[in-house]
Structure formats: C-alpha cells, structure tokens
Design a protein that fits this description.
Helix content is about 50%, strand content about 15%. The protein is built from 35 helices and 32 strands. The strands form seven sheets. An eight-stranded mixed beta sheet has the order 13-23-22-15-16-17-18-14. An eight-stranded parallel beta barrel has the order 25-26-27-28-29-30-31-32, surrounded by five helices. The chain is elongated and about 110 Å long. About 45% of the residues are buried. Bound molecules: adenosine-5'-diphosphate and magnesium ion (2 copies). The site of one magnesium ion has 2 residues, from loops.
Amino acid sequence: MRDLLGGKGANVAEMTRILGPERVPAGFTITTEACVAYMAAGGEEPSGLEEEIAEALARLEELSGKRLGDPEDPLLVSVRSGARESMPGMLDTVLNLGLNDRSVRGLAGRTSTERFAWDSYRRFVQMFANVVRGVPGARFEREIAEIKNARGVRSDTELDVGALRELTGRFTRLFGEETGEDFPQEPREQLRQAVRAVFDSWLGERAVAYRRINRIPDEWGTAVNVQQMVFGNKGESSGSGVAFSRDELTGAPGPSGDFLPNAQGEDVVSGVRNTRDISELAGAMPEAHRELMKILKTLERHYGDMQDVEFTVEDGRLYMLQTRNAKRPAQAAVRFAVDAVAEKLLSREQALLTIDAGGLEALLHRTFDPGLAYAPLTRGVGASPGAAKGFIVFTAAEAIVAEERRREARRGIRRTDHEALARFDAENPGVVLVRPFTEADDVGGFHAARGILTSEGGKASHAALVARGMGRPCVCGASELEIDLEARVVRCGGEELAAGELIAIDGSSGDVTRDDVALVEPRITPEFEAVLSWSDELRTLGVRANADTPRDAQRARDFGAEGIGLCRTEHMFLAADRQPKMRAMILAEADEDRRAALAALLPLQREDFEGLFAAMEERPVTIRLLDPPLHEFLPARLEVQHEVERARVEQSDDLAELERLLERVSALEETNPMLGTRGCRLGILQPEIYEMQVSAIAQAVRAVRERTGEPPLVEIMIPLVDYEQELDIMRALVVRVAGAEGLEEGEDYTVGTMIELPRACCVADRIAHHADFFSFGTNDLTQTALGFSRDDVEGKFLAAYLERKIVGRSPFETIDEPGVGQLLRMGAWLGRKTKPNLKLGICGEHGGDPESIEFFQHSGLNYVSCSPFRVPVARVAAAQSAVRAAGSAL
Ligand code: ADP
Ligand code: MG
Ligand code: MG
C-alpha cells in the first residue's frame, strides 16, 4: 500500500503484520490522500482530519496504556514523513513529541533515570525547533559546545542531569527568541504543527524541484507516520542501530551494520559518535542480537530481497523501526542472487530480477595489474570497487572542467583512428577527485572523475554511497592523507602531491599510490559466472559483440559473445602500414594504378579476416564493407594547402605531388560528409574497393576452411542502404566476386544489410527481397531520424536538453522508443512480412543498454550486438527481459 501509506508507512505496517505488534512500536499513518486534500485546500487541514487523528490517537493511547501529555506517565511519539518513494527535501523525523515541562518529570520518575528524561526533552526541543520551525541547527550546536566547555566534558553522553536541564532551558529560550512564541507545551498542538510541517515540506522548494526534475507528480503527496517512541537512550542496555541482512559491500552471508549503545535515532548515521560493529551487539545485548539476526532472515524471506533495517533496543528489548530492500553494489547484488538460489530463498528467475543489470558493468572495471609491484602511498577503505588513475583535482567544478576539456580534445581526433585514440587515452587518463569528504554539491564531479578519494568517512559515507551508485571506484577514509584545500596539496608521510599530479586508487583494496600503475582488464568471478550461465539458459535474445580486431574478438568471446554482430572494416585501412597504400589508391589516376594499390591492400585485409575467423571459430561473423567517405583517409584540406604553399616558396620537389593531393582532397570534400558519399553509395561509384574486400573475405574463408576443416560463418553486410536497388546491385557484386573465389552464396556466406536510414525502415519489405538478414544500425538511425549529428549534439546541447528534461537520457545511450524505436519496429515487421524467417539484429550502442534490450526483446529481434565490455550486461538484461516477458504472458 505504498501509494496510500508511503514507503515507510507501508513497510512499518507490513513488519507489524509479519513480526507481531510486540516487535514494532504501535502507531498510525496519515495517508497521502490527506496531504493531497491539504494542498487542494491551499494549506488548510481538510475537514475531518482533526477528528480522525484524535480517534487514532485514542486507540494508540488505549493500546499503549499511556496518554499523550500525561504528567505522570506520558505517551511519546515520533513524527516521520514518508512518500511513495524516498526523496530529498522532506521533513526530518521529530522524536520524543509529547514532552513538556511537566511530563518530563513524569518520564524521569517513571524510569527512575532522570538523565534519560532530560536528554529526551532537550533532543525534542532541539528537533522540533529546528525541523518543524526552521530555527538554524547551528544555534543549538553552539549551545551544546558551550555547555560542554563550561563543564569540562568532551562527549554529549558525559553531560549530567543538571547540564541537560540547563541546556533544555537555553533551547526553549532560543525557540522564543527565534519564533517570537513560547515553546508549545500542549502535546496536541505540538502534533498539529509537526503534521502541518510534514505536509508543507512536500511543497518546499527542494522537494518541488526534485519532483519536477524526476517527473514525479505533485498529486502523490506524502504520508505522515505517528509512532510510539521506544528509547535507545536509556542507558547501557539500550541503543539504536542500522543493519543489513547481508554484508552491504560484498553480499556475503552474515549481517553487517553499526550500532551505538545509549543512543537515539539519528545518532548512528549522523556520525557524532563512533559507532560499533553490529557483531559487538552480541556481547553487549545478547538477547536483542539473537532476535535481530532471526528477524533479518524472516524479513528477507518475506520480501525476497536483501534488507536494510533500522532498530532500537530499549532495556534489552529489540524494536524494529524500518525496513526496505537494500541498495547494494554490483558484487553484492550478484553474491546475493547466487546465495539466495542456493538457500532456496528465490528461484533463478526471481534472483535474476533482483540484480540491476546496468550496474554490473562495475564488475567489469579495471584493476591494478596484479603482476606488478607498486609503492603504496597509503591505504583507506575500499568503498566502491574498481581501480582508477588520473590527475588530482580538489573540487567538483575542476573535475567537470578538466573532463570537458579532455573530451573536447578527444573529439578532435578522427573516430576511426583507433591508434591515435589509444595514444590520447594513455596520455590523458582523466582526473581523480580528492577531498576530505563529499557533499551533495559534489555529485556532478563524480560523473566527471575516474575515481574518488577521501580522507574521512567510511563505507557508509556520502562519497562511498554515491560512488557505488554510479559505479565509480572510490577509496574513503584514507586518514593518513592531509588534504589541504587552501594550498591545493595532499600531504602524506613527508610526501606532497599537488593538483594535476598523477594518483591511482584501488577501490577494492583501498590502496592509494602515486605510481603510474598499469590498469588491467577485469576477470569474471565464479558467482558472476553462475549468474551469467543462468542468464544464458533463460534468455531468448542472442548476444553478440561489435569487434574489429582479433584481440577485441577474443575479449568478446571471453565475455560470452555468441558471434560478431558488427566488424567495421575501416580501421583496417587506417593502420600505419596501410594508410599510404589506401592513399595511393584514392589518388591513382589510371585504373591500373588503382588496381595495383588495391592488390597491395588485399593480403593485409585477408590476414585481418583470418584472425577474426580464427578467434570466433564456428560462431557467426558479420562483416560490414567500407562505410566512411574516402576523404577520411586523406589529410585535411587546410593542412595540404599549407604544405603546397610551403612547397611553392621553397620550390621543393614534392610540389607537383602535393598539388595533386590538394586537388583530390578538394574534389572529395563534401559539405556534409555524414550525409554524403558513404556506405553503399561509395560501393556503387567505386566498386573496386568492395570487390577487393569481398575477395579478401572469400580468400580468408578458404584459408581457414583448409586449415581447420571448419568453414567460418560469414555474413557480409552492406551499409547505408536507402533503396532496394542499391542492395540488389551490391549483392550481385558480392556474389560475382565471391563466386570467382569459389564460394557459394547461401552455403559459404550470406548477404544482408544494415538498416540505418528512416527510408530503409519504410521500404524494408522491398529491401528484404535482397537480404538474408537485417542489422539495425541504431547509431546512424538515431542521427538520421532525429536529425542529430552525434558529435555536435553531445558536445553542444544535449546537456541542456537533459537538464530541461526534454529528454530523460541521451538518445544515443538508450533507444528513443517513440521515434527511432518505432522505425525499427516498422522495419522489423515489414522485413518479416517479406521473409518470415529474416534474421534480425541490432548493432548500435543501444545493444548494451538494459532498457533498450527490453524494447528489442518485444520487437522480435533475434540478437543484440554491443561492445565487448557490455556483453555480460546484455546477457543478464536479455534474460531479465525474457523472464518478465514470460511472466506478463501468464
Ligand atoms: P529517515 O528516513 O531519515 O531514516 P526515520 O523516520 O526512519 O527517518 O527516523 C530517523 C531516526 O529516528 C531513525 O534512526 C529511526 O530509527 C528513529 N526513530 C523513528 N521513529 C522512532 C520511534 N518511534 N522510536 C525510536 N526511534 C525512532
Ligand atoms: Mg533523515
Ligand atoms: Mg529511517
């Protein structure tokens, strides 16, 4: 009943049902509908609310045997906000509501611990003033600091009754000064104000902004939970804490968590005192510990998921105050799924669905090369797995600027020039954000940084939580580091590192080093392997990889790819030994010269293909014939022009050659090359290149067949088809050339096309007559359907579109379902209308995105193809889609 009771209220009610009323303090929930009515009435309590609250309160009083405001034995409650989903900006919880100058004495008398009563009262005044009436928290902290100073004590817990009584007096005076009112003594008035404040917080600036950004309707409203207090601050056999049903970091069986003896509510998370590990609860409060362990199991079984709970122990007796499905990093999610199946807690299908497939990429993070030694600078807490290396920055803003600059520079490199890109990446590793601790404002910097390093906080610190959420490596609490933000240096054991110097962190071990350690690719753990193998059994979509080199192909296989869905052949022309040959081919005037240049390229291409086929063995390999326009293989016109001018001045020998180059470059120059002579258009105008490529493929097929006896499964793919006639012509070319090499169509290879233009989707039925398969090229399809040039869009306005919520995510990251997705579906449907068994795949970047994969599952595709690193993510996402599809069909 989350919608009506809010997440917190629904779970408290459900826990009461499962664990029994003696384990969960009694209370009642004011529904989200009341909040909506309050809003509709322009910020007035709706009629009937007061009466209903009074009624519920009466029941609670009867149940507890105490009365609100009773000077002898008062009922005290907490007031907790809770919407359908937890969100920032909502009112913080108010504890101990119901206390006043008289009932505090009753409380003291009853429990014979005067100190406890006054501690509760001063907390209440402080919280009520701060949370409900907005008196700045710093004012109270100053009073506390002053009184501790005056009494010569260091910790809050050392303040005696007299001190606490004085403090309460100071707080109520402060309340008066700040609000111009006396502190409300009447408990029902306290409650009325607190409830209104919760409703009002729903309309607060932060909450409204958050809802606008996340498109959450205002009409959801928030619920208000009023719950009888239990007291963790009654002495050493009381306390409060948080716990996870399994290790929050690794998912290993055995709960993890923290507790504080003699503490109330927020003390544990606020970090005012050093918490103790949950295992120590066994010694301090054995009965409560035993009970808690049992309850964690019960809750897991009930919710079918790992739980994250809040509890309080009062005089040795355990009370549960909250439970929810635990947020967890990828490794814990995988571990939980595997263990849950082994323990028969969940079926494989259910277990798979508890995993956030997209987050699994964190497990495919790089690590320090285990074979290499490095000099550790220090060690902190490994708070988010994966290794990262980069230049030190000290603020989120610097991280963002540095990353923007790096990307800008990288965009200057040709996308197809793999060598230059690799060199650039090695020299520009990005940045590591180094801070004492992080806050909400720093989150933008997490996106931009490769990793996060802090000197304070632990596994549950802000930095750790956010980094894990984003899959960024993080080391926290490296307390030996002295991070001097003023001087912009980090000091550690006599060493000093300035902004811009290299640092490397290992978010698993917590190691920090200034060595330029090599980062190596990840290995898949046995648990992850198990999840992947279930996925392979359950999924119906095939998963292939986009790979251009034998090395990528091998990696793709290691990650479980069932074939290559896209091999781009352009890089084969760009390697240092090939570019001059390619250039000679493009510049050739006589036909002979051109053929000679192509003949020199052919053996090199053949070798490339042999390597790919060998790596993939019997698995299918889709090879796309050359796509980019020819000018990409020549130097930029301006550059050549300068060279020509220089040669003229110097009267050098190469002038004639340079002039010819300039002429060719100018002739090939296009205003908009992306929409120019690319793909099959090039194949039609300059068939020699495609002929050479097909010969090279055919010869490689023969060579591998002769060597291994196993014929490779080759799919030759024609790019950028608009008209069925284009494919008809190209297919004839392939069949003719491959035939001359002794290969038979349909037997030794198939011919298909990339569907990447809107027109091709519209006439897919006609195109299908000439195609054995379609592979949707969703990168170009997105560019051409939206009229977005990817590089320009991502560099210039996508950020603004995301911020204004015109798009939720980049259409290059996740498929634009209503536009591009519908084109794809039309293409798939029309293609199958002509050929019911037409093989359909997708090879854009969307092939590795879980949301898009779900869409492709429902579009009837046979397989997705993505970058090798996304293959494991795609395998799990495809299985989840299949499980959900089967479930919804029931
Ligand atoms: P949040 O969403 O910020 O965790 P909660 O309402 O869960 O807010 O509560 C804040 C703290 O107060 C938690 O530690 C919780 O356990 C404690 N708390 C809430 N209600 C009670 C109660 N009735 N008795 C004792 N502690 C409570
Ligand atoms: Mg809170
Ligand atoms: Mg809570």
